[in-house]
Amino acid sequence: MLQPKTMTRLLIVGSKEQMPSAVTELYRHHVFHITDYTDQGKEGYEGFRIGQPMEGATELSTDLIKIRSIESIFGLSPDDYLGTKKRSSRSIKEIIERELPAIEQEVSNLTAQRSVAEARIKVNEQRIAELTPFSGIPLELGLYRGYETVSVIAGKAPREIEIPVPHEKFIASDKGNDTIVLFFKKEDRAAVEHALAEAQFQPIPIPEEEGSVRKAIDAYESEISQLTATIADIDEKIADIKEKHGDFLAACDEVLSAEVEQAEAPLRFATTELIFIADGWVPVSEVENLKSGLAQATGDKILVMDVGETGGHDDDHENQPPVEFDNPDFAKPMQAIVDIYSRPRYDELDPTLIVAIVFPLFFGIILGDIGYGAVLLVLALGLQRVLKGETVQQLLKVLRNASISAIIFGVFYAEIFGAHPGALDIELWHPLISRHLLIGSHAYHQGDIAVLLVFAVWLGIIQMTLGRIMGVYNHARHRNMLHVMGQLSWIAFMWGALLLIWSIAAIPLMPDLTMLPPIVMGLNIAGIIGVVLILAGAIGIGIESPLELIELPSVISHSLSYTRLAAVGLSSVAIAMVVNFIAIEMLIQPQLTQLTAAGILLIIVGIFVLLIGHLLNTALGLLGGGLQSLRLQYVEFFTKFYKGGGEKYNPFGKKRNLTED
Description:
The structure is a single chain. With about 650 residues, the chain is an alpha+beta fold. The protein is about 55% helix and about 10% strand. Among the domains are: about 330-445 and about 565-640, no CATH class; about 450-560, no CATH class. The chain is built from 16 helices and 14 strands. The radius of gyration is 37 Å and the shape is extended. It starts with 6 loop residues before the first strand and ends with a strand.
């Protein structure tokens, strides 16, 4: 569980005649992670080169591109059809040859028509934009040109312009930026342009059209309406084609993707004129099944060599096996969260199981409200029905588990939307730990703030110690005793500091060692042991890396960082209780004694404040609970032992969701 699946390296060697059968079998088993061959003069691969795609690969790729082009036009994805009845791969191939060209032609014609209509709309909109400034000028378009001795200039100006020569001026007001048309003698052009430049005049082109401006604009708008209707009709036809052929196209995508991946597989192999070598990794549990399948598919004319579990060293990145998680079902959704940080290396412990337990725990401690947890649980379950994709589904399952934890802690805290479940003068049960603040008349319990803070620190101490222990294990696997000593030194330093603190001050929910008699310099036996552990830990850390000594204060800061579990949760409670106080006690309750029109309005306002306030606080609770819980894993926990950077196990082949052989 804390280890990825054990991998073994296989070398598959055979003649090129057997390559298609071997590739098909490898694809069917979907367990062989191919290590791509590169022409870099690998030892033992002299004379080998990268293979060539199988026959028909180009045609298959062309068909796949056509399918995905149509899918893009339709806005569909194969994931949209998950759960539909599976279709035969053989029948799909026959339909592709028979019907795909006609579907492609029909869709291509429709999209071409739509493109022409959209382009025409843009042209008309541009012409309307050019004509609009002249709509307020009482002249037809033909009167703006065709003169031998008169020039015409049109443009925009922020103010009245004085023209020092004889002219005719037309103005159309437009919110302080008037459209001005000037008619003047051609020989006066220089003087006119000088006056216009000083007035910040911006020239605009005069449309090359005839007749009334208003009629021209109406004609273009009418044409735009017709074109818009045409586009709507085309979109409806495309939607009909999608409805009729969408599932078929999704199945085609799956079949062709499989065919193309198989046809291009030799590009990842080492080959000569006669043989091929496929290098890759397989989970140990699948080796015998794969060997049997290959032998049967090729008539036992292929050699499969089990090289074993190589790699596994810190400095051996090239030979590191790929990493496939191996976690119980309840922890699998958390794999997406760990992957966001980085996939674990093959030679280190996988923290997914621990995070799967701790993340919902921390989320529940922070949010801890029956009402908010129930809202998020309904949201998670609802989105699981709507949203597709493996990663999205995993994240929604994480939210589901975290919401259940929030409900459980809501029972412990006796909170529902920031109030006691019996806030209406009926106290149903006492909270195990109270986070209630004295806000409003229905606040039953004073918050156990000190207890919450110390409890959070204890969680930090335990998790950081666990992280260091996991670091010891990781380094011990590689016989790296210097780093083992360094991790043990960090543990000694942290617990020595705790012993020293406990021997000096009594802290709630922590061991009280202040009652032990002093021995030396006012320190009792616990304090002396603590000092010894601190000194020994500091020396060990310095031996491992002197630069690490500047990180010694992080023991305290990281421990105190876990108090955010209490602090962020209390802030959420405070917001909820303030919302309740304003909405219920200030707006709603006073109006219930004697209803009036104004009182009813205030009640409606109070309900609105209540709903919006708790909706926003739910969002803040999701954000705060998720990010803060995640931060504690990534920063305070992972940094103690976790490197990451492993290669994801990506077996050759694909799970069939829409088709079957």
